[in-house]
């Protein structure tokens, strides 16, 4: 039992002002009548060890972690889930009453849950997934797709070496395609995922021709600013089912909130509207 009467949680980042997590968790706290607070915590990398060491004693039951701390916290945690180890980063910490820190990564879970909730008839086992990008977000997407039983992942990245590295790490079900031959990986694919920042507000859109993609395929983007990225707009116009990236953010927050505050929160239209402001 905590000696603090009001449980605290927060998001640790540097910078952190842009984070939508306070709005999201704040909404849930209010909705479920839970006495607690969720705050943004701007923590410089030089201060991270000290801050993490003190948070439990200050009444924090948990924290989300964002850029640039997601990899560092793995090394600082006392216990790490298998999925966080595989992804190589953590986004959800729990401060236990014995002073230890438990680290998890729920990004891949959020990715899959978003598709399960919003895509009609989508089954990850239904066919190959074409994944664009090989950065941190791609790792979470790949780990979760493999775990969900996808038969094959076709992977492409501007810097081919990073895609080859993921193949050497995650093995046989990954097939790497050249960036310039990206269109070839769409033939017969059941899912297309953009994990790069291309298409984000202020960035160049992704150049891809969707002609080879079967009409039954699902197209999704982890970018959610804008919600309708150029990729999703083109896919929608061509008649594909699409799912935007906002739900990944909403669903990745569920396991932390449940662990910290003892209530499994709902992800619904209401929440989307609150977070979008
Ligand atoms: P994140 O954690 O968001 O995935 P990251 O690890 O920096 O961030 O990875 C960014 C991804 O977006 C990478 O796949 C990156 O490609 P490179 O590995 O070649 O850098 C991709 N990316 C970013 N800007 C891009 C652009 N203009 N064109 C193509 N790919 C881009």
UniProtKB/TrEMBL annotation:
| InterPro entries assigned | Aminoacid_DH-like_N_sf, NAD(P)-bd_dom_sf, SDH_C, Shikimate_DH, Shikimate_DH-bd_N, Shikimate_DH_fam, Shikm_DH/Glu-tRNA_Rdtase
Q: Where is the Quinate/shikimate 5-dehydrogenase/glutamyl-tRNA reductase domain?
A: 129-197
User: What GO molecular function terms would the record report?
Assistant: NADP binding; shikimate 3-dehydrogenase (NADP+) activity
User: Does the keyword NADP belong to this entry?
Assistant: yes
GO BP of this protein: amino acid biosynthetic process; aromatic amino acid family biosynthetic process; chorismate biosynthetic process; shikimate metabolic process
Q: Name one GO cellular component term.
A: cytosol
Enzyme Commission code: 1.1.1.25
> Where does this protein act, in terms of pathway?
Metabolic intermediate biosynthesis; chorismate biosynthesis; chorismate from D-erythrose 4-phosphate and phosphoenolpyruvate: step 4/7
Instruction: Cite the entry's keywords alphabetically.
Output: Amino-acid biosynthesis, Aromatic amino acid biosynthesis, NADP, Oxidoreductase
Q: Where is the SDH C-terminal domain?
A: 245-268
Task: Quote the record's binding site residues for NADP(+).
Answer: 82, 133-137, 157-162, 222, 245
Class of the enzyme per the UniProt entry, highest EC level: oxidoreductase
Q: Which HAMAP family match?
A: Shikimate_DH_AroE (MF_00222)
Q: What does this protein do?
A: Involved in the biosynthesis of the chorismate, which leads to the biosynthesis of aromatic amino acids. Catalyzes the reversible NADPH linked reduction of 3-dehydroshikimate (DHSA) to yield shikimate (SA).
Query: Can you say what this protein is called?
Result: Shikimate dehydrogenase (NADP(+))
Native source species: Donghicola mangrovi
Record gene name: aroE
């Amino acid at each position: 039992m905590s000696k603090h009467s009001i449980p605290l949680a927060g998001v640790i980042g540097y910078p952190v002002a842009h984070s939508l997590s306070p709005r999201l968790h704040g909404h849930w706290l209010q909705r479920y009548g839970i006495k607690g607070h969720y705050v943004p915590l701007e923590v410089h990398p030089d201060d991270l060890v000290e801050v993490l060491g003190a948070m439990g004693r200050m009444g924090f039951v948990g924290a989300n972690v964002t850029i640039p701390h997601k990899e560092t916290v793995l090394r600082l945690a006392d216990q790490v889930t298998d999925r966080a180890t595989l992804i190589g980063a953590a986004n959800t910490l729990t401060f236990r009453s014995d002073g230890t820190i438990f680290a998890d990564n729920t990004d891949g879970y959020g990715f899959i849950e978003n598709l399960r909730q919003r895509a009609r008839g989508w089954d990850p086992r239904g066919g190959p997934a074409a994944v664009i990008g090989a950065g941190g977000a791609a790792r979470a997407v790949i780990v979760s797709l493999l775990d969900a039983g996808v038969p094959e992942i076709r992977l492409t990245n501007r810097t081919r070496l990073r895609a080859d590295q993921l193949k050497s790490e995650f093995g046989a079900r990954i097939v790497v395609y050249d960036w310039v031959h990206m269109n070839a990986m769409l033939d017969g694919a059941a899912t297309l995922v953009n994990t790069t920042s291309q298409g984000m507000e202020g960035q160049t859109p992704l150049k891809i021709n969707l002609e080879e993609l079967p009409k039954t395929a699902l197209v999704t983007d982890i970018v959610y600013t804008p919600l309708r990225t150029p990729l999703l707009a083109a896919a929608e116009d061509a008649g594909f089912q699409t799912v935007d990236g906002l739900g990944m953010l909403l669903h990745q927050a569920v396991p932390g909130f449940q662990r910290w505050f003892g209530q499994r929160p709902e992800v619904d239209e209401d929440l989307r509207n609150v977070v979008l402001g």
